[in-house]
Amino acid sequence: MTVSNDKRAASRAILETLGVGKVFGATRALDDVTLRVAPRGIHALLGENGAGKSTLVKCLAGFHRPSSGQIMIGGRERVLRSPRDAHAAGVGMVYQHFTLAPNLTVLENLVLAVPDRNGVSARRIDWKAERARFAQQIDELPFDADLDVTVSSLSSGQKQKVEIIKQLCLGPRILILDEPTSVLTPDEADEVLGTLHEMTRDQDLAVILITHKMREVFAYADRVTVLRGGRVTGDDEIGALDADALSEMMIGEVEIAKSPERAPTAADNVLLRIENLSADNDRGVRALDDVNLTVAAGEIVGVAGVSGNGQTELAQVLAGQRRAMAGRIQVHEEVYSGTRAEISRHGMHCLPEEPLRNACVPDMSVADNLAFRHFDRPEYSLGGLFMRGAPLARRAATLMERFNVKPREPRLPMASLSGGNVQRAALARELGEDVDILVVTNPCFGLDVAAVAQIHAQLMDARNAGTAVLLISEDLDELLTLADRLVVLFEGRAVHECTREQADRRGIGQKMTGY
Amino acid sequence: MEGAADLGWWGVPLALLAGAVRASTPFLFVSLGECLTEKSGRINLGLEGTLVMGAMIAYGISFLTGSPWLGVAGAAGVGLVMGALHGVICGLPRVNHIAVGIALMIFGVGLAFFLGKPLIQPSAPQLPGLALGAWSDSRAVRAALNVNALFIIGVILTFVMAWMFRSTRIGLAIRTVGDSRDAARAVGLDVKRIRLLTTAVGGAFAGVGGSFLSLYYPGSWNEGLSSGQGLMAVALVIFARWDPIKCLYASLLFGGAGALGPALQGVGISTGYYLFNATPYLLTLIVMIAASSRDRALAGAPGDLSINSSS
Q1: pLDDT for residue A253
Q2: Are the Cβ atoms of A125 and B169 closer than 8 angstroms?
Q3: Which residues of A touch B184 (CB under 8 A)?
Q4: Is-above-0.80 flag for pTM?
Q5: What are the residue boundaries of the ABC transporter domain, all occurrences included (chain A) (predicted)?
């Protein structure tokens, strides 16, 4: 970038960070980050997980204080001590994890977040007046919401819209969206981003969009800044860049595991058969409704759907963590109910989402966590009572080597590993021995490109070796890459099924929203 | 219970009603306090200790000053301090609410027994009752309708609290803090401070509940005074689904259950007296079993109410 360019950008920037750095303990999350955001338009912030995008915007939203550098908003230096300061400066942020109180209604959430026009908040709430106020405000916005429903009953897409409405009601000049589309279907994502794109044309609104989806950057952003390892590695108008240039800025020189070939398999020996399966969620509401599904040896069956349409419950029933209310599961044509004996006999393994929380004991060592599936087998225990340390340790070392778990230190507590390594360790446990059936849920959530490629390669290897894989994922691209067949879940029902050849992105996106 | 005998078997429902009104007051105050605390996302199991401390302090102050109402105020003050203590300790990083609650419960009970030793013998001035049954000739009716002012205050407090949760900004703030820490932080609420305040005020309520025990019914200070009512009140909040008005109904039910033994004794059934006295404990067990489910989470529970540690 030339000097004159720099100056022009600076003179009309609504928001600037000048050499911002942030240190957490011994880690430097941000290092000398300079960012200039124009008063109108969508500014994409691109980068891998852990590149510092979230840290940077949290500094802008008043959640973190930068360790060094300045933040300028509207040409003035600002010290943002709290989200409230950021609001006052005109910065609104929609977080990756929703910040709506789930058991309150939409109206109640809005009332608390948005002071009325005069900035006064009466102690007593006049619900009628508040309802009228927000109905009118929402009327003026291109988004829609029902004020009287409880937030927990909304879909992720609707929650996202309420979050955006909440921020827009505050009249921000800068709106930050932290990976807004990770919970949306492609159509919903297009709707939300398209609407915001229009808004930034018509009024003084700058949108900072954090994403790792290249498609969205090219479709909606005006300018893009790329972060890697807490530093800016690229910054330019979108027209001046192409996808290859962007991914190099994002990833740098990391070796990406090659995706193994999809070997031809017969896929006629059905190992997992789910018949008329129904189950309730934690609230006692039907979450899985009459689902039929088969997975044969040597195929990957993908389960697509927007988060919260029964995927979690399906995985839990298969793992023996939730009771089925109706229907049955057959493994190797035998009735299966998820007991440890059955799991062991049938080689049925499950990798739930967020394995550190759902499938590991964080404070136990990596070696212990790796032993959960087989510590009671004769070769690892004396008389079924005493664990044999040496064989277990040898096995842990082998698995960590094979699945590239770093650091290669079996005695570290599981919780000390990074997200990608926890995921690989959990996968090592589930794939490490003879596994006939593997159920995985969102295996790559929150991982960087290199880690994703490794895990995809391992799943494909397992498939090629004859494992029946049920891949439950909210990432449609991942499913389209890996699956031989796709099933779409909507409101707990399997509403659509197609083969890999028939699958098209748009059509599946529509089925995910119930068309 | 001589009066109940005049009415024969009719004395049983009347005595139950009277018992419900009389014995429910401590349940009501403790459960309202716990309801307030839990609505903000914290559990204070220490209220049993606060209740006993409140009872002892109220009795002591009433004995020394001659004013039972000063005793009630003192009990509220001690409750406030003990609640605040729980609130402050839980505000520290990596502190578990449950463990702190149990520690404070044992501490409160122990401290009350230690400081209250000299109060077992003397008798302190008691809170007066309001004779709402003065119109009746029957002594049983008059006894049953002799209502304590604290009960009436408790009923008013119930409705004030329900209104506060529903229609005031502070109520909405408490519910938000209890439902989602992140949501509360994002709208600029100070989660720790709000939880500290609700825990402190909740403790004050429990202290007042304790003063009723020593200054009205049973109306003396001894070590068996509470017999776990503070703990039962915590179960009662779950039964009441974190709704103050249901806390009132549930308190009446528990109070009535506690009066079953004495009421039956009044009509001459004394076999199984101790068994009937165990009714509230049995009821607690039944409530906990009925409220639990293998398949679903508790409906109406504040979303952030967790048994985990941290703020």
Answers
A1: 67
A2: yes
A3: 101
A4: no
A5: 15-254, 272-515
Quote the minimal CA–CA distance from A484 to chain B in Å: 33
Q: What are the structural domain ranges in chain B? A: 4-306
The class of domain B4-306 in CATH terms is: mainly alpha
Chain A from 67 to 126: CB within 8 A of any B CB: 82-84, 87, 93, 95, 97-104, 108-109, 111-113, 121-125
Confidence of residue B111 (pLDDT cuts 50, 70, 90): very high
User: Touching check for B270 and chain A: CB below 8 Å?
Assistant: no
**Whole-angstrom distance, CA of residue A344 vs CA of residue A346:** 6
B180, closest residue in chain A (CA to CA)? A101
pLDDT band at B5 (very low <50, low <70, confident <90, very high): very low
Nearest to B168 among A101, A125, A283 (CB): A125
Copy the structure tokens of residue B91.
């505000």
Residue A93, phi then psi, degrees to nearest 5:
-135, 135
Q: Say which of B176, B188, B302 has its CB closest to residue A83.
A: B188
Q: Which residues of A touch B186 (CB under 8 A)?
A: 83, 93, 95, 99, 113
- Domains of chain A plus CATH, in order, are 15-251 (3.40.50.300), 256-347+434-514 (3.40.50.300), 362-433 (no CATH)
The C-alpha atoms of residue B250 and residue A56 are separated, in whole angstroms, by 50
**Section B216-230 average pLDDT:** 88
**Separation between Cα atoms, residue B173 and residue B190, nearest integer Å:** 10
Task: Return the structure tokens found at A50.
Answer: 């852990």
Residues of A in contact with B303 (CB under 8 A): 101-103, 152
Question: Residue A79 corresponds to which tokens in the numbers above?
Answer: 């010290």
Mean pLDDT by 10 residues, chain A (515 residues): 46 86 83 92 86 88 90 90 86 82 92 68 81 90 87 80 89 89 76 90 92 84 91 90 82 70 83 94 85 94 88 90 90 89 89 86 90 85 82 90 85 84 89 88 80 88 93 88 93 92 84 78
Q: How far apart are CA B295 and CA B300, in angstroms?
A: 15
* pLDDT computed for residue A3 by the predictor: 44
pLDDT at position B190 over 50: yes
Q: Is A259 on the interface with B (CB under 8 A)?
A: no
Residue B2 has pLDDT above 50, yes or no: no
> Are the C-beta atoms of A291 and A493 separated by less than 8 Å?
yes
Give the separation between CA B154 and CA A414, rounded to whole angstroms.
51
Specify the pLDDT at position A1.
41
Q: State whether residue A128 sits within 8 Å of chain B by CB.
A: no
**Chain A closest-CA separation from residue B295 CA (Å):** 6
Residues 184-203 of B with CB under 8 A from A: 184-189
A284 touches chain B (CB under 8 A): yes
CA A203 to mean position of chain CA atoms? 31
Residue B276, pLDDT score: 81
